[in-house]
Amino acid sequence: MSPIRTFLTFLAAVAPLSACVSTGGGPIIVHDRTSSRPEPASQSQRNPPGTPATEATIPSAPQALSRAGLEGVIGAGAAQLQRQFGNPQLDVREGDSRKLQFAGEACVLDVFLYPDRPGATPTAVHVEARRASDGRNVDRAACVRALRRQ
Question: For the segment 99-136, what is each residue's pLDDT rounded down to a tens digit?
């Protein structure tokens, strides 16, 4: 194979990857549209100094998931959840939020806790459930029933 043909083959293979290369234009920001927690306002979104705050600039409390079968979980604190499900197999803290993971043969339950105001104790606002065997989503209320201590 000639050097030019080798070079052209190389370019044909590498060209599609060039779209993946960063131009160095700054950080990439990903917005999670599934998150129930509001993002803080950036400096450009805040009122200039000396301007009174409006409701649009004050973050609201996270919206809690409400669904039949999740009573006793949504709105519960970490201690209440541990009384219901035992010790979590995973306890992750990030800032003022917390994720507790409870698991059993039937499923894995992730409970996300956030404070409803600064300095408040985090309470459960969202849950996700999946099968331990393959990670496929399962009914959240059914998973709560399966893992709850009797």
Answer: 999 999 999 999 999 999 998 999 999 999 999 999 99
Locate 86 and state its tokens: 């035992």
- Cα 148 from Cα 85, distance rounded (Å): 5
- Report phi then psi at 136, rounded to 5: -75, 145
Contacts with 87 (C-beta within 8 Å, 6 or more apart), sequence order = none
What is the rounded distance in angstroms from the CA atom of residue 14 to the CA atom of residue 79?
A: 54
Neighbouring C-beta atoms of residue 102, cutoff 10 Å: 24
Question: Phi then psi for 93, rounded to 5 degrees?
Answer: -115, 135
With contact defined as beta carbons under 8 Å apart, do 119 and 130 qualify? no
Looking at the domain 60-147, which fold is it? Answer: Beta-lactamase Inhibitory Protein; Chain:B, domain 1 (3.30.1450)
CB distance 123 to 63 below 8 Å = no
Q: Residue ranges of the domains in the chain?
A: 60-147
What's the pTM value of the predicted model, to 2 decimals?
0.56
Amino acid at 23: T
Q: Which two tokens stand for residue 150?
A: 């009797």
Nearest Cα neighbor of 148 from 120, 106, 117 is: 106
